[in-house]
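Structure in, sequence out. Go:
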């Protein structure tokens, strides 16, 4: 079995065991249903952590519109966020492509991590779980 397929299977298995949820990362285009609530924390590559709504406000203030409805903005500077390299599974610093704000069309799902943090996401959002033994 290939490494990628094995990682996907591990993720699917772990997602069924809520006690394994500790840290959550989001890596996808907004139209793929990976929306988070405005109070969700986003790790920036410089080590700071900001809420998603604040990140959107910052990028909107100085960014360039990238969609027709006027809620997605690309940063003009080299703003980088913490990401996951799909090939290696390692965390990396990647340029933020855009910050988008949309109203939820259905109730958000609440995910509570083992350390008590709560993240609200759209229902179709999948969650990857990082443990001491891998993903």
């Amino acid at each position: 079995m290939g490494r990628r397929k094995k990682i996907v299977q591990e993720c699917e298995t772990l997602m069924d065991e809520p006690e394994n949820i500790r840290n959550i990362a989001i890596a996808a285009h907004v139209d793929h249903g990976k929306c988070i609530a405005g109070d969700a924390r986003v790790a920036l590559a410089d080590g700071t952590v900001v809420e998603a709504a604040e990140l959107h406000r910052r990028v909107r203030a100085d960014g360039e519109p990238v969609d027709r409805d006027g809620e997605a903005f690309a940063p003009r500077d080299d703003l980088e966020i913490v990401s996951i390299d799909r090939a290696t599974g390692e965390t990396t610093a990647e340029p933020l492509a855009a910050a988008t704000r949309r109203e939820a069309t259905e109730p958000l799902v609440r995910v509570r991590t083992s350390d008590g943090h709560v993240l609200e996401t759209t229902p179709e959002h999948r969650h990857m779980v990082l443990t001491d033994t891998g993903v």
